[in-house]
Amino acid sequence: MSTVKLQSPGALAPDSNSHTSSRVVVCRDDEITPGGIDLIGLSEGLALPLVDCTGDIDADWMLCVIDGRLMIRWAHPSDGSGPVCATLGPVGGRRFAGLYRHQPLAKAIGRPVTTVVDATAGLGQDSFLIASYGPRVIAMERSPIIAALLSDGLRRSREQHATTARIVGRIEVQQIDAQLALPLLRPPPDVVYIDPMFPPKRRQSALAKKEIRTLRALVGDDTDAHPLLEIARAVARRRVVVKRPDHAPPLAPNPTVSHKGKLVRYDVYVTKGAAVK
Ligand SMILES: C[S@@+](CC[C@H](N)C(=O)[O-])C[C@H]1O[C@@H](n2cnc3c(N)ncnc32)[C@H](O)[C@@H]1O
Questions:
Q1: What pLDDT digit, counting tens, does each position of 35-73 carry?
Q2: Residue 148 near residue 63, CB atoms below 8 Å
Q3: Are residues 187 and 156 in the same domain?
Q4: 145 in ligand 1 pocket by Cβ < 6 Å?
Q5: Domain limits at 47?
Q6: With a 6 A CB cut-off, is 259 part of the ligand 1 pocket?
């Protein structure tokens, strides 16, 4: 059985930081729906075994189709962590993009902006928000498994409400390491957005969101966020925006300006003499 180097599913427990090899399988789905997910292609593309997941599974993680959605789930759940998928769309029942324009993230991205690279796309929620402000978004994600979940989320969102479909139509997913891809982009993007895996608080009062716990368990902490920021600052035409937890210091000293949200902060690094708006 081929394996992918991942963190232990035990890392789903808060504050755990163990790095071990975990195995991921793709679950065979007998109900093939036309236009649905090509599980054979997925297992070949990700070099993961395609297995029957009805009995005991000799793996740690399963990629499976539930209600037409590609989801990842821990094969032996014991902490209540359910399956996770990428969901791109309006949050909190809001339907129209204009409602997001006064958010701290929108202020941090600035205007006018044509192209934004989301260099740490994850499950794409921030890519969706940024695309809702108007620019084209190149969503870079280096984990092939997370990128597959994100691509599936985009596919489903295109079939939703016309406004949602129009927004996700501006998002392009690239499964690639942004450190390698950013310097090669022509033309360079106006803005690079970076949301590295947050450093965990020493004591967490509540479990982190299910999606973030799963991402951390799958890909670990982004310990190379500093070099990514330096590359982004050399490439972005206008600015680099870094999302940080409110308790964390800036990734690099002296951001030009910071926009505070409820629990997070967006540190803006203006590049090459561009004016802050
Ligand atoms: C905290 S998550 C981002 C969550 C995302 N903002 C969202 O809204 O879902 C960080 C993600 O960035 C990815 N990542 C980290 N460094 C990267 C790099 N250099 N290139 C591409 N992806 C990267 C990780 O694999 C992980 O999926």
A1: 678 899 999 999 999 999 888 888 889 999 998 999 999
A2: yes
A3: yes
A4: no
A5: 9-74
A6: no
